[in-house]
Amino acid sequence: MPLPELDIFEKLRGLPTPVVEIRRKVLVEVAKMISAGKPSSWVEAIPYQIIDRHTPTYRDSVFHERAVVRERVRLAFGCDLKEFGAHQPIIDEMAPAMVSKKVISEPLVDVLKVGCERCPEKSYKVSNGCLGCIAHPCVPVCPVKAVSIIDGRSFIDQGLCIKCGKCAQVCPYNAILYRERPCAAACGVDAIHSDAEGFAEIDHQKCVSCGLCIVSCPFGAIAEKSELVQISIALKEAAEGGPPVWAELAPSVVGQFGKDAGPEAIFAAIRALGFAGVAEVAYGADIAIKEEGERLAALVKAEADAKADPSGKAEQNAFVGTSCCPAWSLMVRKLYPQLSANVAESYTPMVETALKIKRTVPAARVVFIGPCVSKKLECFNPEVAKTVDFVMTYEELAALFIARDVAPESFKDAPSLCEASAAGRSYPVAGNVSLVIEAECKRVLAAETDAGHAALAGVDIPKQNADTLEDCRALLKKLQSGLIQPRPLLVEGMACPYGCVGGPGTLAPLARARSEVTAFAKKAERKEP
Hints:
With 529 residues, this protein is an alpha/beta fold. It is 38% helix and 11% strand. A hairpin with a 5-residue loop joins strand 6 (192-194) and strand 7 (200-202).
């Protein structure tokens, strides 16, 4: 039996491909440049350090390869792309970016058209696997007569084809292949299309910066802006007596730096980079659990009151939507604005944890470190920007470790962590958020002094969850149409496969990351917030 086909979100993840190698080399060289105190003109040397050969390896020429690297260097400094007629020397922009304040702006995620290979859009094509069978069921099953037999083999007229896929379904040899641009396949909000020349293009009005197109493009032609330079400079200033820099680390970090680097060792390694302290974002998840649990309890009581009172009427389409994933929240606001009021308005765990740090150390600069690209977009919100100064992915953190020669696995005697509960630490895995909020809701109901409401402690609370934006959209469409019965009172949405453990900034294979987070949560001293 053939192996089951992986979906687009898993095909390139956790593999040491040349795309990953180049992406990470750029980040490492940029981090080394800042750590060594090199002038802004040094950026011109980076493409030659990474592409140091005279013959091409990945593309048609070394000049093409270096052109792609140049654009990646721009993004690594947090600057806009400069391509196709707008190109200019890198050094013209780099000096203003070498500061300890936020410089990135929208668009956050974009296509490096110099690296785009203009992949074909959705289509079905007959492969060499066609044996020209006598039955040729692909012909009669086609509703628009786009399939015919030419020279004894099946042929699909692309001008007639409506891409229904019926021919591929009935082919006994699986010889009819479905092709789709990988970045578009990974985009759950239909934000990627082709421009007039066939290059991929992102509609930034639709894009929610989930970043999954970045890790799905096999040519490495999509990337996001980084704050690695600004964070590195902030750390240098802190070492010279400037404002301290604190890190807040998402619970999905476990397993990201190998089996010999546990979460305690990673915390210690981050401090070795010059961070004044490290906080668990799972602490903020605990706060979100309590707030959203209370909100859900209020909704459950309102529903019960409406059923008990014959004259009462329950609010239509009312539910509590989780708030921890900014890409999911933004998608709801953009595509289903009539349902957006249901998404919890509480701060995300990132912000709650940053608020705790700022209360303790008001002058601190706070860096969120996690798996998420859309967290960078979240920080464009002025209220969020007051508490979270920068965002860095695990991939960017790994580059900083390499540049500074810090090995997380070498920290063997790091103290254990005890800031958060098992519930908060379980947040990165899809499905767990709704489970722990439901449990908190039932605790709130059980504690009610009203005997009638206390009886609700054992009530069944309908809930639904979805991960990947495509599945989230399908769920919201059903909710809006009333197709889900009983109507869920709690709805969890996650943009990434398996939840935050499948974020584009992760390093580990998705299934392994999920199991590592589950094991880490079980080690918590407290089970509940």
